[in-house]
Amino acid sequence: xxxxxxxxxxxxxxxxxxxxxxxxxxxxxxxxxxxxxxxxxxxxxxxxxxxxxxxxxxxxxxxxxxxxxxxxxxxxxxxxxxxxxxxxxxxxxxxxxxxxxxxxxxxxxxxxxxxxxxxxxxxxxxxxxxxxxxxxxxxxxxxxxxxxxxxxxxxxxxxxxxxxxxxxxxxxxxxxxxxxxxxxxxxxxxxxxxxxxxxxxxxxxxxxxxxxxxxxxxxxxxxxxxxxxxxxxxxxxxxxxxxxxxxxxxxxxxxxxxxxxxxxxxxxxxxxxxxxxxxxxxxxxxxxxxxxxxxxxxxxxxxxxxxxxxxxxxxxxxxxxxxxxxxxxxxxxxxxxxxxxxxxxxxxxxxxxxxxxxxxxxxxxxxxxxxxxxxxxxxxxxxxxxxxxxxxxxxxxxxxxxxxxxxxxxxxxxxxxxxxxxxxxxxxxxxxxxxxxxxxxxxxxxxxxxxxxxxxxxxxxxxxxxxxxxxxxxxxxxxxxxx
Length: 483
Ligand code: URP
Ligand code: ZN
Ligand code: ZN
Prior knowledge:
Number of helices: 13
Low-confidence stretches: none
Number of strands: 21
Helix content: 25-40%
CATH superfamily of the largest domain: Metal-dependent hydrolases
CATH class of the largest domain: Alpha Beta
Shape: globular
Bound molecules: N-(aminocarbonyl)-beta-alanine, zinc ion
């Protein structure tokens, strides 16, 4: 087995930082050596095969992005990143594990949907991957299939209170699924927006000729998110199901989560980089020479970008500091402008929903450290350690400690990352399969220097050294936040 020493860096974990060398043997971390420490059971007199100089850099556990949608069929098209392109882009950005959503569509059997997702991912991924299960059709057969999810290494499933006629579940279906999940300890992941009410507003806006992307944000008002979040919390309370609300963007929804947590309910929330940096006014309401007011389509996602003036963005950062929101995932769901987003040129409701960010999450959140929004340790916690714990991966992922997988990022705080348009060749400024960047113009005061995925150096010095198929499916256990 090849050995690697990551030498002279500052190891940052969720609980602190120390000057230490990290010793990797094969796929595992075998030692974290602070100056003067002795590594029991390891023969350091044996020369290591590779030394990575991390002087002046941070050594952190690889990022865990718990919310991606590679190849997701949506709005008459499919997310433009395949498992191959999306996981490679993730690796470039210091994410070494994704948890993608296997889909059961309406009328399909859950286990057939899961098998199809394995077929898409198997042999194609650059980094390790796991699955949540979308239950898009809660019926007797699906409820029975939930009995077998844990054996498949899937300890969480997603329901939608939005998208009537597509993935939508009504309250009766949600109640039944939550009863089943409470039985097994499965985490219910909820897309909390009142879909039927949103659809009425969409219809009324379109009837008035309000067809621009901006109105996507108007129709999906924060009241729709607050109400659905509250309803999900109450149904979880009744059934005893643990609840994790995905892509939280409204400050009122955070308040619902915080109130439930304050009285001891096992509920959690994630937010995404777009809700920390982008807004209804600036992006959804933006215009360009190329696209006019349709420019905003680049940022059509659900839940939508919120008004900065209303204070949602500032509240999200605050909630990350206070742990009212526990972690940050991307909800990576990319579509190209040409041939995909432009399906909605004359009707915002036909724009496929989603933003591509899987490559940029570690950088964008590091910028939060530079800007004084979060601490260095909290950066590691919300991007790696908590996602691993939340979804039953901790110990293997999310930590730098002996026995863990050697998923490690050497991050250079003196480096710089300019996010821009995809261009061909080595000058490529992002690696996702998109014809634009939702993050064009963002300048990051830091840079991913080296990425190890289970001990293999996959990114170093702006070069990709990995290969399709490096990544393996990881079976997950129950959430480590359950008692
Ligand atoms: O806009 C989004 N979020 N697209 C992906 C599907 C979902 O709801 O997560
Ligand atoms: Zn969703
Ligand atoms: Zn999503």
